[in-house]
Amino acid sequence: MCTQRFLVGVIFSIVLFALSFADETCQSPYMPKIVGQEDYVYVWTLGDPRIGDGSDKLVVVDVNPRSKTFGKVVHYVSVGGRHEAHHCGFTDDRWYLWCGGLDDSYIFIFDIGSDPRHPRLVKVIKDFPERTGLVGPHTFYALPGRMLITGLSNVQDKGGYTGLAEYTNDGRYIRTIWMPRKLKNYEGDGYGYDVRVNANLNTMLTSSFTGWKLYMKDLKDVIAKYIPKGEDKVYKDFGHLFGNTMVVWDFHSMKPKKILKVPGAPLEIRWALQPNHYYAFTSTALTDKLWLIYRKENGEWDAKPVADIGTPDKWNLPLDISISSDDRFVFVGSYDGVLRIYDVSNPFKAKLVYSEKVGTQINMVSESWDGKRIYVTSSLLFNWDKPNAEHFLKMYTWDGRKLTHVFTIDFFKEKLGRPHIMRFGQEDFYKGIVRDEKEASSTAQLD
Fold this sequence. Notes:
- This protein is mainly beta.
- It has helices at 4-15, 128-132, 212-215, 219-226, 232-235, 427-430, 437-444, and strands at residues 40-46, 57-62, 72-78, 85-90, 96-101, 107-111, 120-125, 134-143, 146-154, 163-168, 173-178, 182-183, 186-187, 195-198, 203-206, 245-250, 255-261, 266-271, 279-284, 289-295, 301-308, 318-323, 329-334, 338-343, 351-357, 365-367, 373-377, 392-398, 403-410, 418-425.
- The longest helix is centred in the N-terminal third of the chain and has 12 residues, at 4-15.
């Protein structure tokens, strides 16, 4: 599925490397970047039974300021039913977008490249649990010709023990790699959440959260029954109900090298992007901290908290982070509705330099590669969203000192549902990429 199209895409991106990039900063190094102003934001949206058709959907928003439909929804594809729409990711050639449901573990594959303004659903994978032994496909991470998928749970007990699933780009299952529970002298929990690769260091990082039995419960019940109170909340292991570790892997061999203690559910991972910056960041949802994962001079990996995110006992719940391409800023979206921006020029001493109340709650934060545009969405999980939460996509500009609001799309008013993750698209990227007849025929039969 990625022969001629992939090679052309790579050449295209290399030729234009000297120009300003507008791609998201969290994408796989095995994907060609899009160049210039992004045209579309694709929003994977959780259905709400009170809104529209009630189904999960992929929503296309025009974000090119030169367009007559700038800041408007121009297309959407409803997938039928609610599957707990959560995360999605492009294949390595950017032609297809894989989107997952955390409840029934369905995976929806959309053709983006044929018509970026009007993507279409071309395949649904319904046997992810049966094939992989995993439940809750979360991160979709592009590898050469393959898709690496993190699970949040497992088939046997639907707890937090889980692994990574590997698929071909055309949707064929390859293997499952289980998370380590113990490694040499390091104790782990075997939980999973995000995955990110630093190709230059041959290093992969995974983080951890919780299993289906908890993330599908009402948040009030989770807090009342499972979250420790008072001072014990900060470093308690949460009764092994939530992840408290990150794993450092040898990427080429897919073998775990070290288990790091990172208490309180470390979620999204963001590698530093500049040469000779051998570190990454994550945030811990239950302990409200920004953590640094770094390689020491002796080559060993370690982790340490470098900033409090709000006040740790106020249940701020930092959920998503984005790092600027110059490694200067980290943007943190939190359940308390505040977008916080940290100066991480010195990664060991993160400094809060800006914060703004964006909504009742916010979740995902996506920044353009040139650092000029920030997009924010609202929804976390259907049973964890606040009852009175607004549901929106908001766009801001960032000049290095303050945010300036550009537009808001009210997803409830538009009868679309609850917006979660975002991915960028651009018309010009796909121009000149020719698909051979055999490949086109194979794709037509995906569904």
